[in-house]
Amino acid sequence: MIQTYTIKLDSCESKPCVGVELKEVPHDRLQKAMEMAIKAFRSVEVTADQTGEVIFNYYVDFDWHLPIFNYGEMIDMLCHICYDE
After folding, report:
1. What is the DSSP letter of 66?
2. Cβ(55)–Cβ(47) under 8 Å?
3. Running DSSP on this structure, what letter comes out for residue 14?
4. N or C: which end of the chain has fewer CB within 10 A?
5. Is 64 left (phi over 0), alpha (psi -120 to 50) or beta?
6. Strand 54-59 vs strand 43-48: parallel, antiparallel, or unpaired?
7. CB environment 56-72: b (16+ within 10 A), e (fewer)
8. Mind listing the pLDDT tens digit for each residue in 24-83?
């Protein structure tokens, strides 16, 4: 069985709140996706699909978050990184 992961992204804003789930991300694409996701989202959590174990948890306070990309750009990039779409 091939190990896959779910990446949960959260903007941690109230209006609008942007939440994204990328499911069944292959192991060989995960590291790049995590490195990129934190450049836009304040909260990033990765869990192993087969075990449910949280393998990565990132959160940064609003005052410390310096986004490089907006949410739409990052979602497009992550779809390409994770799924070649």
Report:
1. -
2. yes
3. S
4. N
5. alpha
6. antiparallel
7. eeeeeeeeeeeeeeebe
8. 999 999 999 999 999 999 999 999 999 999 999 999 999 999 999 999 999 999 999 999
pTM of the predicted protein model: 0.94
Token pair for 60: 């940064």
**Of residues 71, 68, 8, 76, the one with CA closest to residue 43:** 8
Beta bridge partners of 22: 7
24, 4 Cβ separation under 8 angstroms: yes
Q: Is 15 left (phi over 0), alpha (psi -120 to 50) or beta?
A: beta
Q: For residue 51, give the DSSP letter.
A: T
Residues found in the chain: 85
- Angle among Cα 81, 83, 85 to the nearest 5 degrees reads 90
The CA distance from 72 to 78, in Å, is: 10
DSSP 8-state symbol, 58 = E
